[in-house]
Write a structure and sequence with these properties.
Structural class: alpha/beta
Helix content: 40-55%
Number of domains: 1
CATH class: Alpha Beta
Largest sheet: 7 strands, parallel
Mean pLDDT: 91
CATH architecture: 3-Layer(aba) Sandwich
CATH topology: Rossmann fold
Number of strands: 7
Shape: globular
Order of helices and strands: EHEHEHEHEHEHHE
Radius of gyration: 17 Å
Strand order of the largest sheet: 3-2-1-4-5-6-7
Number of helices: 7
Distance between the termini: 38 Å
């Protein structure tokens, strides 16, 4: 299987890339921006991986990736990349320009890449899968300061459903994974006291591990196309009522 993982050079993305690369039958392309050394380490350890420098804020690099996608002849796209901070400050204190900037830097590149991949799937008349990383913040009360992040993930969730509805007749499925809070670069500045509170309120008394998310990506990769338009929450059932 030929796979593209966006933001696959560090943190959660790196875990996803390496989990998929453990199957030597896969060829895993992954994008990175600033994680050059991580990317080269991954390529060194897994010979079936190919790193691609792509800064989503750079339209030229984004267009170069778009042009390459058709040549990749992909079977699976994992939309993982997200830049910026997940937790900022109170909604009313955030400059309105930040909402536009985060949307431009994160959502529009995901749209451009996914459009290209779906077009490639259809042109090559082959089945395909799209897996998008969302957030369990969409199901629970969002933490203070996460309004931009949650709004962007909600936008993606709607797109995930549209992709699923419009493309399943071509044997192209679209699903998502909604992880609970993890300690990654995206959340590295969160106060330790808040992290301890999250652990205490978690049913398992521990935070979600990035490896557990990667395992779920592998599960969806291997699943039937009958699984389409679903979201898998990874939060130990904290939202069960």
């Amino acid at each position: 299987m030929k796979i593209l993982v966006t933001g696959g050079g560090s943190g959660l993305g790196k875990s996803i890339t390496t989990a998929l690369a453990k199957d030597e039958n896969n060829i895993v392309y992954f994008t990175y921006n600033t994680s050059f050394f991580n990317a080269k380490e991954i390529e060194k350890e897994y010979k079936n991986t190919v790193s691609i420098k792509c800064d989503f804020k750079n339209i030229n690099e984004l267009n170069e990736l778009k042009e390459k996608i058709e040549d990749f002849n992909l079977d699976l796209l994992v939309n993982n990349a997200y830049s910026g901070e997940a937790i900022k400050t109170y909604f009313h204190k955030i400059p309105t320009t930040e909402f536009q900037t985060d949307f431009t830097n994160n959502i529009l590149p995901t749209v451009i890449i996914t459009q290209s991949v779906i077009s490639s799937f259809r042109k090559n008349k082959k089945s395909g899968k799209i897996i998008t990383i969302l957030s369990s913040f969409l199901m629970n009360s969002p933490p203070t300061g996460a309004s931009i992040y949650v709004a962007n993930k909600a936008y993606l969730k709607s797109l995930v459903n549209s992709w699923a509805t419009e493309n399943i007749k071509f044997n192209i499925s679209s699903n998502s994974i909604s992880p609970s809070f993890m300690q990654t670069n995206l959340t590295k500045d969160v106060d330790e006291r808040i992290i301890e509170q999250m652990k205490d309120s978690h049913p398992l008394k521990r935070l979600l591990k990035i490896e557990e998310v990667a395992e779920t990506v592998v599960f969806l990769k291997n699943s039937s196309s009958q699984i389409n338009g679903i979201d898998i929450p990874l939060n130990a059932g904290i939202n069960i009522k």
